[in-house]
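Deliverable D4.2, example record:
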Amino acid sequence: MRIARAIRRLSEALEKLPGIGPKTAQRLTFYLLHNPQSELDSFAVALTNLKKDTKECRLCFNVGETDPCPICTNRERLQDQICVVENPLEILVIEKGGFYHGLYHVLGGAISPLNNLGPDELHIYDLVPRVKTGKITEIILATNPNMEGEATAMFIAKMLAKYQVKLTRIGRGLPIGADIEYADEQTLSRAFEGRREF
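Output generated by the structure prediction step:
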């Protein structure tokens, strides 16, 4: 049976998203096909404006509507702590917990030679000027507790060893191999409370 070109194109586009295989892409395509046109139009506008209406913060590399982002410009936050995360989604999870009140630094991923991601492809070296100001007393390494996250944390620790800054690693409230973005607030809160010197 020949599939309509529009259905095939959308399915192929959805397959490019992480975690979406061919069958899931087809299910999503047919789900969208049975939605009212007004909902599809709203979805298309939101998708079209996704990049246009967001900015990357030049200080922490978080994604928001302004540059610098609201977290970096909030003087009520602890200005001497930086929590290093792999991606902006992890900031949302940590903020939802309400237990951390410092600043952030988004790496844009983790060191992964198999995926051609080294320190130069990430925002690792952008952390150094922030530490050099002398205002930062603690760097919390909140990379994911998997091989790539551990390698990234070790690289950052070696890079910052010559500076007068306390390096801590979030505790093991998270199971090995888990991603921060899927953790619940209580587990994440315990991980922060159990952080240790790195």
